Amino acid sequence: MPFSESKSGAFWDWKEDDAQVELWVPIPPDTIKKDVVCVISADHLVVKHTKLGKTLLHCEPLSGPVNAEESTWYLQGEVLCVVLAKQWRGETKSDQYWGALLVPKGGTFTCYMAAHDVKSHRIAREKREKLEEEERLARFKASRQREKQQREAEAAKKEAEAAKAERRRRLHGRQESGTCDEAEALDDEDGSTSRQQTKRSSGVDSWFTLPVAVALGAAFLVLVEIFVQFRKAFVAL
C-alpha cells in the first residue's frame, strides 16, 4: 500500500487497501505508551496525549465503517501507528476504498501538526531509517567478511599442519627404509636454512674420514722428524 499523493484534509500520512487503513502520526518527544489514549470506534478515531493535555488527531466521522475490535494501535519509535480494520460495505472490493479523505467534508478533521509538517517528518524519518539500515547492512557485511577471513586463515593453518604431518610421515617411512639421510630429517624439523647448514657439515665429514686422518698424522710426524734432524745439523755447525 504505497502512500498516495492525492490525500487531502488535515492529515495525509495514511494509506489503505480493501481491508484496512494504516496511519502514522508523529508524536512529541519522550512520549511513552501510557501517555497516549487512542479511541477507535465504528465511525471515529481520536488520539490524545494525556501528559500534554493535547488532542493529536481527531477524525469524526470516518469515511467508512470500522471494526473497532479488530483495529489496533502501537508506538514505533517517534511515531504512533494506527491500523483500522474496515467493515465490509457494498458489493465489490472497489466499494471498500475511502478515497482522498479520512473524514467526509463537514466532519471533524484536525491534527496537532500541519499536514505538510507531518509529511516532512515522515520523509526525514524514512531517510534516517534508510541510512540506519544501510549502516546495519555495512556492519553485517564487514562482520561476514571478517568471519570469512578468519575461516580462511584457520583452513590455511590446518592445511599447513596437515602438509607438515604428511612430510613427517613420509620422512619417517624413508628413514625406516634407509633411503633418508640425517640432513633430510633435520630439514623437516628445522627448515631449509638448517638443511643447508647440515649439508655443509656433511660435506666436511664426507672427506675427513679415518684413512685421511691417519695419512695426515703420518705426514705430520715426517715433518717433525725432518725438523729435528735439521736442528741437530744446525747445532753441530
From TrEMBL:
Residues 7-102 form the CS domain. The chain crosses the membrane at residues 207-228. Residues 138-200 are annotated as: Disordered. It comes from the Eukaryota. This is CS domain-containing protein. Keywords: Membrane, Transmembrane, Transmembrane helix. Residues 138-165 have a biased composition (Basic and acidic residues).
